Amino acid sequence: MSSNNYIVQVQNLSYRYDKENVLENINLSIQKGSFLAIVGPNGSGKSTLLKLMLGLIKPQKGTIRLFGQEIGKFKEHHKIGFVSQKANSFNTGFPATVFEVVASGLTKKLGLFRFLQKKDHDNIKQAIESVGMEMFMDRNIGELSGGQQQRVFIARALVSNPELLILDEPTVGVDAKNVNSFYEMLEMLNKQNGITLLLVTHDIGTISDKVTNVACLNKNMHFHGSTEEFEQLKINEVSEIYGHDVHVLTHDHHHHEGAHHD
Predict the structure, then answer these.
(1) How far is 230 from 212, CA to CA, in rounded Å?
(2) Contact between residue 153 and residue 83 where contact means Cβ atoms under 8 Å apart
(3) What are the phi and psi torsion angles at 33 (to 5°)?
(4) What is the pLDDT of residues 227-254, one digit of tens each?
(5) Is residue 251 part of a domain?
(6) CB atoms < 10 A from the CB of 245, how many?
(7) Looking at the 3D structure of the chain, how many domains does it have?
(8) How distant, in Å, are the alpha carbons of 95, 130, 162 from that of 152?
């Protein structure tokens, strides 16, 4: 297998806090251009895995390679965009416009007080357009709904043109009737803009027709494969992974309030 095709390669990765194993012998590879959903119950190790991939904590056993490079040597962090769950608890009294919030995603590259060049302006506008928020460019971030704010944080992560975008439970705080259009926006980023997406989610029923691959994590990797293979799993197998019944493996969305129009 050519490692050039893989943006992330996790091999035999284990991690423990004190005496408790949080991750055991995890193997996971993410191919360039794919859209992977990582699903699993609370406490399954999903956020630890993200921290390891983002280099916030170091592997204790096993290896992680990003863009073919050992994570300890990896320096091109601008290639990875990250939107955390904390984005949802943003201080809505913060006096900044959508444009300014997205522009702040460039500060790593530019240094805080450098004047924006024309191409920076263009980049910011493009990022805002790619999440469908161009009508709100001058609006204060605090006036937006949870789902709109979350789109702005994605634009902020996109402004430095990452090749991989990692999203941690991005629909927490997004109104149920807007969740589907939110996922459609992510699907467009993946298919049209060619960005590789890694999504941690509980929402596998709604997202399974958008993602290309699914990984089921519960300390061990119980399943990792294509969406088609995942959908052939029996409901009871998925319930075993989750440790409880799962009633969401369906594309039948019309029971949601406010049916959407395709």
Answers:
(1) 10
(2) yes
(3) 90, -5
(4) 888 888 766 666 666 665 554 444 444 3
(5) no
(6) 10
(7) 1
(8) 15, 10, 15
- Whether residue 158 contacts residue 78, with contact meaning beta carbons closer than 8 Å, is answered with no
Answer yes or no: is 247 within a domain.
no
Over pLDDT 70: what percentage of the chain? 81
Hey, what amino acid is at 64?
Answer: I
**Residues across the chain:** 262
For residue 237, give both structure tokens: 């197998």
Helices (H), 104-203: 107-110, 118-130, 146-158, 179-191
Three-class secondary structure of residue 128 per DSSP: helix
Phi first, then psi: give them for residue 132, nearest 5 degrees. Answer: 70, 30
At 75, which CATH number?
3.40.50.300
DSSP line for 10-68: EEEEEEEETTEEEEEEEEEEEETT-EEEEE--TTSSHHHHHHHHTTSS--SEEEEEETT
CA-to-CA distance for 117 and 136, rounded, in angstroms? 21
In a domain, 249, yes or no: no
* Residue recorded with tokens 């493996």: 249
Q: Is the pTM of this model over 0.90?
A: no
